[in-house]
Queue: 2 jobs
Job 1
Amino acid sequence: MVSVPASEIGLALAVGFLLLSGLPLRWPRIAIPLGLFLGWTLLSLAFSPDPAGGMTQVNKMIVFLTLLTFFSAVRSRSEIKILFLAWATLGSYTAGLGLFQFAKKWHAAQALHRDFYHYYLDSRITGFQDHWMTFSGQELYVLLMLAAFLLFGSSIRKTIWIWLPCLVVIGTALILSFTRGSIAAAVVALAWLLWDWKPKSLLAFPVLLLLVFLAGPASLRTRVNSLFHPEDKIDSNTHRKIVWRTGWEMVKAHPLLGVGPEEISKPKVFFAYLPKDIPLPLPPGYYQHLHSIYVHYAAERGLPAAVFLTGALLMALFDFRRALKTLPPGRSDRRFILQFASATVVGTMIIGAVDLNLGLTAELTMFLVVMCLGYRAAAAPDEPIPDDAIPL
């Protein structure tokens, strides 16, 4: 959540210590479709016009060892508690930093007598990250963790006064990031949690959203309105339609293996598949990936790769929901973790429709950790999470 290089160094050390520890090496079930996804990536790379140029994606595969290290080593509630406290603390601090950044940008726009919406959209809050999409994606995971804990956790009375304000700070920072995909994912995933908690609570949720909408700055209402009435020169609606159409042309031309890993980032490749009816110059935007995990991986690595990745998400959601049905009624740490993992899959799938979230190490690492948590909580009765007298 603070440094990707530090995280990667930590992962390398964790793999080494795991191999020396003598612990049995275990993988969660989601490793099967994800392994097929990675295998198909290597196949696509082998037939790519520039295999050397796609080696960065091979290096990124190391991140998937998070599944092995975390699932093998984290075995008790006290260890999960450490993760919870670390993410909640860092997420709240990062959100607070984001709010401070927002205030600075607001005052800067006022000093320059600039319209805040147009001034802010290309320089939004990022926390410790280098982009607002990564920032908002990480904050979404922490938001869902705290929400699931407050709704389903076993011991919240003594700590609700800590975690509820953290939830508000993180939610505020997420909203003020103006990332529509993450905000939409938060709304749907929170509604998912509320439905499982108390279905009638959903009746109050739209009222809360309306109050936030009305109480927020005018620029927030402009951002929401941009979903339906975008400005071509600043909002990304048109830009995303262009990259998705271009991706579809790539899929039609190379349905099995795609154009090759990292090939889309090359302008000559992108413009070779740009539909002829799209006028030049293109509107402002980032054209080195296709802003959707489904479209991008289908175009870059072939339809099977996109199917394997989507299958991994759906399988995890099914497994977590099935495990929830086996739990006795009432609050419990296992229920909290399974609900958190389920909501994370839902949120990830929604953001993935409009952004390459699982292609970014910072978000991918957190996602893989949550999947391990979910599968630990979904363990068979003969493989429970040990009780160690330290409540979450």
Job 2
Amino acid sequence: MEIELKLFLPAGARGLRRHALLEDVRPVRRLLRTLYFDTPDWRLARDGVALRVRREGRGWVQTVKTEGQGGGGLSARLEESTAVAGPTPEAGRMPAPAARLWEKFAGALGVRFETRFWRDAWHIALEGSEIEVALDSGAIRAQEREAPLCELELELKSGDAAALFEAALALADGAPLWPYEASKASRGVALARGVPMAPVKAADCLLTPGLSAAQAYNAICRNAYGHLLANLPGTLEGRDDEYLHQARVALRRLRAAFRLGRELGGPPAATLQGFAHLGRLLGEARDWDVQGGLVLPQVFAAWPDEAAAARVRDGAAVLRREAHAALAEHLLAPETTRLLLTCARWLALSRAEYPDTDLVPWAHRCLDRCGREVHRRLAPALSGSDAQIHALRLAVKRLRYALEFFQGVLDKDARAYARRLGRLQDDLGHYNDLCVAGARLEQAAARAGIAGTEFAAGWFAAQKAALRGALRQSGEELGRAPLPW
């Protein structure tokens, strides 16, 4: 059983080799070439098996790996390695599951992609545990395609898995390190199949009634945390605005999950505070993307003073760049590395209280608490202030996330309720966009030195008044629906 912590280096490995944890240890450097085999229709990958043959020194080593269990960069997977005569797999040296697949598909197996990278490996002792620290730098190649490879793997050779996180937290002083869940094999499969890097949406959280509440809570948090990790590299690089959107959604889901599981024990208070701060920075940058690209152009197009509109538009562009720069700086800061690693450690190693609590009663209690909060806020918000509408929107989001988390143990009545809730959430989202855009426009006007924004204020007031009717209709429809749990 291989236990390792995989880490992404968003700013490269500069400074890592000079870290105090490694400076007195002589690294072993090797150039590794690895061939990955599969059928043309990727049967091994679909069955969660990676079959590779790697050149090591003058010989070749065949390895079969199964899909890892874990999350937050920590994985435990079955791995079996044996020496082979050359760069071709040998069925007689495979574990039974892979051997059976070999017998069935041997004629179709071929090299689908390869990796070539330099590996610098340090063997260190920490808190009574033995750890291999491996820095891999090179590329993944599939026919004419190539993708860079730069990652750090901490493999537990003996001792306690907690030492992997302690080592990562210590090494983070030398370079930003983020937990990373994508294996070389999974990245190679995507490259070979021509699947482009793209923003990742939330995966379904597949809970089953046989789980305990503690197991379900951990699975929900892992699901949301994995969603966040998958979108952070693209958010930092700014390849697509959707990465930022998905990262913000993921963090909201994660914080909603922490709130659901308060009775089961949550992460440290500092972790909660750190995610709240990260959420504010993600929200600031995302607001400028949305409002600057969707709502504010409508105001500028209608503004009678074209010169003033142009100056405010320029001010908004400056503030958007500043928000993205502040987010990027924070993502590379040591405090973000500590935050992500501390959360990963909590997910991997913590044990929630009340482990014998059944999932379904706990799910119903969580949904009842969230649902009652929504219904309590409905009537005051529908005839109340923007602040009351905002509070209702947050309550609706928390209930919507809870319904998504628990969908595997809910009946059709709950799914019908979720559709009604979705209509109200959409209306609340449109209203919130107008509120946020109005505030952002005031900031942009102040930056541009424009004092008179009465036209914009009137425009936003008219748009919000028009939306109030739709909000009242969807809110009253939800209010008449009983809570179905």
